[in-house]
Design goal:
Organism: Karelsulcia muelleri (strain DMIN) (Sulcia muelleri)
Number of helices: 13
GO molecular function: cysteine desulfurase activity; iron-sulfur cluster binding; metal ion binding
Strand content: 5-15%
Order of helices and strands: EHHEHEHEHEHEHEEHHEEHEHHEH
Number of strands: 12
Keywords: Iron, Iron-sulfur, Metal-binding, Pyridoxal phosphate, Transferase
Family: Belongs to the class-V pyridoxal-phosphate-dependent aminotransferase family. NifS/IscS subfamily.
Largest sheet: 7 strands, mixed
CATH topology of the largest domain: Aspartate Aminotransferase, domain 2
Oligomer: single chain
Radius of gyration: 21 Å
Protein name: cysteine desulfurase
Number of domains: 2
Shape: globular
């Protein structure tokens, strides 16, 4: 049975051009990029070309791009280094961030006790960040270094942060700003210099690149030390031999995503529009969570829905019919989403089944028709 795939927010399929590029690279004789012989120097030049390419697409300096094994590692590097190296004592975030933010901050709070304060900005009923509350918190606690950590695009409900406004607010109060941009990179143009942001991160498998490779952007001039030690790689910010083939694949994938961005955005938006229309027509009482049904304030690749019938096995039952969706973040697939818990009280949660449908450039309208047919079979 051929599967219909609607879990692109968890991971995206590798593009054929990326696969072919990586295969041709795997056939080459390469050395360790830290070695000083000819093969090592050749590999180092390939590595640095990839770094320059990614930096150019983001309008950043190549020295500001640090390669990691994942977006989660990049978030850990940034958050832990902010406390260890920048003397951050007060961090503002939200309760709907990715677990790589929330669990890392919780771990840091346990480690440092009352030496680090974690504060949560207010959210409205749709999960929108209250920027007035953010400014109040910054104004009230402006006596020591502060870090604001807010994601650009929510990985579960698709809400888009007003990132330029947050950058301006942070600049006004001289706070550091970190944004988890993992769901945004490859889907929106990110201009680092225009944003004047301190930290962002990316993960290749979210923009049709390979799994197991990501990067952190750390603004030049910030003295960040490694949390993984044992080598001087990545300008002594991240020890360990670089995943050269993963980096090459990531560089190729972000280049293609950047070239195709406008065309694919328009195409996927139409797929999402069609899905919303068909769901409204076919499933009585359906709700769209957060701002996910908006094509302006939500990313075009994510649609999060609540169906008025409780079924904890919904993704499993759809899988049996050949349709792949998720019930939340892939990092916590077997638990009730913490984001949904924020948006719904327990009484309401018990009346609904929740699905995240996430689209990619390979999806077609006929895939939506199959999804709708399967949902009707299960619920009607």
């Amino acid at each position: 049975m051929k599967k219909v795939y609607f879990d692109n927010a968890a991971t995206t399929p590798l593009r054929k051009k990326v696969i072919n590029y990586m295969i041709s690279s795997l056939k080459e004789s390469l050395g360790n990029p830290s070695s000083i012989h000819s093969l090592g120097i050749k590999t180092r030049s390939i590595l640095e070309y990839s770094r320059i390419n990614i930096a150019n697409i983001l309008n950043a300096d190549p020295s500001e791009i640090i390669f990691t094994s994942s977006g989660t590692e990049a978030n850990n590097l940034i958050l832990r280094s902010c406390i260890n190296d920048l003397n951050i004592k007060y961090i503002i975030t939200s309760k709907i961030e990715h677990k790589s933010i929330l669990e890392t901050l919780n771990d840091l709070y346990i480690k440092y006790g009352y030496g680090v304060v974690i504060d949560f900005v207010k959210l409205n009923n749709n999960g929108i960040i209250d920027l007035n509350d953010l400014e109040k918190k910054l104004k009230k606690n402006n006596n020591s270094p502060i870090l604001v950590s807010l994601m650009y695009v929510n990985n579960e409900i698709g809400n888009i942060l007003d990132i330029y406004s947050v950058c301006n607010i942070c600049k006004k109060y001289k706070a550091y700003f970190h944004s988890d941009t993992i769901q945004a990179i490859g889907h929106y143009h990110l201009d680092i210099k225009k944003l004047n942001i301190d930290f962002v991160c990316g993960s290749a498998h979210k923009f049709n690149g390979p799994m197991g490779i990501g990067f952190a952007f750390i603004r030049k001039g910030l003295n960040i030390k490694a949390i993984i030690t044992g080598g001087s790689q990545e300008r002594e910010t991240r020890a360990g031999t670089e995943n050269i083939y993963g980096i090459l694949g990531m560089s190729k994938a972000i280049s293609i995503a950047n070239i195709n961005l406008k065309k694919e955005k328009k195409y996927i938006e139409n797929i999402k529009k069609y899905c919303i229309k068909q769901l409204k027509k076919s499933i009585p009482g359906i709700k769209f969570n957060g701002l996910s049904s908006s094509l302006i304030r939500s990313i075009y690749t994510i649609l999060n829905i609540a169906i008025p019938k409780k079924d904890n096995m919904i993704s499993f039952n759809l899988d049996l019919k050949g349709v792949i969706v998720s019930q939340g973040s892939a990092c916590n697939s077997y638990k009730v989403s913490h984001v949904i818990k924020i948006l719904f009280n327990n009484k309401k949660m018990n009346k609904f089944s929740f699905i995240r449908i996430s689209f990619g450039f390979l999806n077609k309208k006929k895939d939506i028709d199959i999804l709708i047919s399967c949902l009707k079979d299960i619920y009607l």
